[in-house]
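Please review this one.

:::
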Amino acid sequence: RAAAGDEAEVAEPSELAEPPRRRDDRSIEAVVVLGDVTRLKAQQAELEQLLRERELMFNLSEVGIVYLRGARIERANQAMTQLSGYTVPELTALDAAELYVDARECVDFEARIAEALRASGRFVGERRLRLRDGSTRWVQVAVRPVTHDEPAPEDPADAAPPGDLICSFVDVDERHLARDALALQAERTRAVLNSVLVGIVTIDERGIDWMNRSARRMFAGELTDFVGESIAIVATPEADHPLRRSDWLERLRDGQSETFECRLRGRDGREFWVVGNAVAAGDADGRRRITFALLDIERRRQAELRIGEARASLQRVIETAPLAIALFDAASLRIVQLNQAAAGFLGHASDTAMGATPAQLFDAQRAGRLEHWLRAAAAAGETAQHDWQGDVDASSPRAWDLRISPLAAGPGAAGQLLLVASDVTEQRLAEQARLQAAIAQREVLVREVHHRIKNNLQGVAGLLRQNAERHPQVATMLTEAVGQVQAIAQVYGLQVGSHGPLGVAPLLDAIAQSVQRTFRREIRVEASGVRHLLPEAEAIPVALTLNELLTNAIKHGADDEIRCRATTEGDAVAIRVAGRARLPLGFDLGKVRGGVSGLGLVRALLPRRSATLTIRQQGDDVVAEVVLRAPSVRLDG
């Protein structure tokens, strides 16, 4: 029995316990030996905890881990399944060689592993891992053998090949891609440098390291002819020649540059001037280099000569051009250059106009207009076009097409303004004459067309009358159609002698006379003071509407006089037709069906938004009122 308060592990029966003995009084005695195994149990628990922790480290590691037994995968962690795409059962069923791209690569890599394990007991290298979907990724592989307690042989060559191996796989595919991208970028940079026309030469402490194609062509040699040589090999004999200096690496700090001009001599003996720039920079390997950029300025001088010739040729063209060309200072608006034609445009001699402002050359009105155009073009930064009326003398007014273009002196600023004016007086006169002739011809043609349409419509109306006389049963409908045709003919008749929109008053009078002649009933028209005009598109619908209202007043009214009156209501005009009659009980204009005759035709013809029609009983008279508003009508003037 343990002491009170002490904890003890239950002891197991000992093999030394004596067998029970029987006493003479027939009672049985037994001896039990108890051993303390508390420490043993604690060590066992620690071992189990270590085993669990090792298992967690194996499974939760971010690095793919594989336990190899021979050529077979014994175990693999979750990170390895995510890296390879295989599940753990699939990996344990694979031969390790199946994770290589091909058999040749497997043999070579396994040979490197075996050699490294024999030499140092570990291996670290990179290879391509073939994934489950057939694609490959670059991984870093670390291999170590599973250690045993066997003594190592004195000679490493006598060591047995490793059996169980622990392999870790780290995904380095992005690093490989970045390295390949850097290599490709370096190749592209070299290709770009080889394509430029500037000679690029790189030197280090040993001499010339590299030069591009332009430099090789400039020096009349190949890269192998200059590698390791001092850059002074292409310098001319001057003692103070910049390329003969040997302190470039000491004088220039990284990123610092220096510009110079000197003469060079190629291997073919040709001497030429170059402008050069030297820049110091350090490489990733710690070596400092000086890069020279050399430009053959003989070509630049030739280009400057050609530019000078072009400028002289352009100046001759400007002087002899029939255009007035003047150059203004954008700030002061003073003329800094002009040609002979510009002197004629300005109305002053060249020596007088040079250095003058518009206010000194023109009257106040024209000078203000020109100064406004110049400043507006400078502010907008765009070419502007204007028409300019100038007078060389009172008897010969001239028309000019004026263009003002800003010439930028710097970012966002116009330093000078170029004015180019061409005399278009003759062209404008010719265009005006052609326009007047075209307008006159068009008016003649329009009047002729309207006249012929009116005659044709009168002929159609005559045919309808004849048919009405032959066929009394349809005489009413044909008479109504005659009135409509005559209303349209009246519109075209009015348009023969007019220009542009028709007046409401003349149209109302013409329609009333036509209806009066047809039905031989008197219609009194009042339209004094009405100055409204009808657009051409609205003339025929309004004429048909008036014809229908007047006809209805005659057909459905008493034999009294029909009254038609037009009045103005601001910008609108109201036309009222009244006669003695009686509307049917419960008459509602909104319920009248549309059609090709009667009130249905009127409702269909009138514009919905700019015209309204009302019919009401007013005492003994029925009054039909049409109100026309813009855009159906507008005031004359």
Notes: Residues 285 and 397 are 80 Å apart (CA to CA).
